[in-house]
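User: New here, please read:
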Amino acid sequence: MTEVPKLDIKSSAYKFSRDQNEKWSAVKQNLDDATGIVRIGTEELVGCSVVVAISDKEVWMGHFVEDTGFGEHDLDTPEGQQGFKDNVLAGISGPATIKYPTIKSEEARLNPKIGTASRRPKSVVVWIITGQHNGNERMYPDEVELMQAELKKTLSLDNDPEVHQYEVVDGKDPRFDTEALGTVLFEYDPNNNGQKSWRLLAHKDLVQEGVFP
C-alpha cells in the first residue's frame, strides 16, 4: 500500500453525479470477511463534504453535496436550519423513511453500532473531509460543527470527529483528469506483511493510516 492510485471509478463504490440532483449518498463495506484489498471512494469534490467512519468490522462513507446541502441553507433562519437537517444531518442519523433516490436500501445507512463487536470495546475512527479556501479558511464552519455534533450523538463518541480540509479548486481544472484531485479514498489490506492495514486519503494527502488488531 505505497502507491496512491487515481480513483478508478469502475471499481469504486460510489460515483457522484451532478445530473441526479442528489442531496447525499452513502456506501457501506464489510471488512470482517475481506481476503483481498478493499477500496471505496468518491470523487469530483469541488466543495462537497465527505464523512468516513472506520472500524475493523466495516467502513461507511457518505458524500454530502454542497449545492443542495450547504450552499442553499441560511443557518440563521428556522427554514435554513430545517433544510440543513433534512438535506445533510438526515444522512448521518438516518430518517425514518429513506427518501433520497441514491440510497438503495437500509444497508447504506450509517450503523450506530459500527465498531461494536462481541467481547471487544467499541472502536471507531470518524473523519469529516470538507473544503477550504485561501489556504486554511474553512468554507462551512458552522455546518461542519453541526455534523460533528450529529455524528458524536449518533455514534455515541467520546470526542468530536476529526476534520480534514482540502483546498477547493475549479471543477474544470485539467488535473482532475490525471491526478487523484477531488477524491476521497479508503483502502484496506488484510494481508499487508501480516498486518490488517488501512489508510484514508483525500486529494492524495494521507489523512490517517492504521492497523487493526
